[in-house]
Amino acid sequence: MPDSYVYTGEEGKNELRILETLIADKDMTPEQAVKQIVDLTQAPQAHSRQIGDHCYYTARSLMSTAASTAPDEQQKLVAFFHELRNKTITDPSTGKVREHDGRAIWTGLPTFGYTFADDLNSIPGM
């Protein structure tokens, strides 16, 4: 993948740090990474910032981390993705499942489809 593909934005740095640490730290488990993402989702600042941005940065960070990780070292990213998809976030004030773009967070993987498509289309030759 070209170097320009790797996501290095200031926005989303927490999501990217979690996934980069998942790969770099042999003792970190995908479940621990998912817990950290879920903690970000439920943190008060996640409510003031657009939840869609958080979903987008999580998807973008997953793509960026995968792009910079050798295929034979991506098992933890695959496990992270599957574990994340098993998490449902509820709004504590209403008890209802939180959604973005009409999809449940995280079981519906909001923003992942178009984020992945945009990222793949930005790679020359894809």
Report on this structure.
The chain has 126 residues and is mostly helical. The protein has helices spanning 13-24, 30-42, 44-48, 51-67, 75-84, 112-121, and strands spanning 99-100, 103-104. The chain has one domain (3-121). It is built from six helices and two strands; from the N terminus they run H-H-H-H-H-E-E-H. Strand 1 and strand 2 (103-104) form a beta hairpin. The chain starts with 12 loop residues before the first helix and ends in a 5-residue tail after the last helix.
Q: Give the radius of gyration.
A: 14 Å
Q: Spell out the helices and strands N to C.
A: HHHHHEEH
Structural class: mainly alpha
Helix-residue proportion: 40-55%
Widest β-sheet, arrangement of strands: 1-2
Categorize the overall geometry. globular
How many E-type strands? 2
CA-to-CA gap between the ends? 11 Å
Low-confidence stretches: 1-6
Number of domains: 1
Measured by DSSP, the beta-strand proportion falls in: under 5%
Mean pLDDT: 86
Discrete helix count: 6
Largest sheet: 2 strands, antiparallel
Topology:
Blueprint: H1 13-24, H2 30-42, H3 44-48, H4 51-67, H5 75-84, E1 99-100, E2 103-104, H6 112-121
Keywords:
about 130 residues; single chain; mainly alpha; two-stranded antiparallel ribbon
Give a short synopsis of this structure.
This protein has helices at residues 13-24, 30-42, 44-48, 51-67, 75-84, 112-121, and strands at 99-100, 103-104.
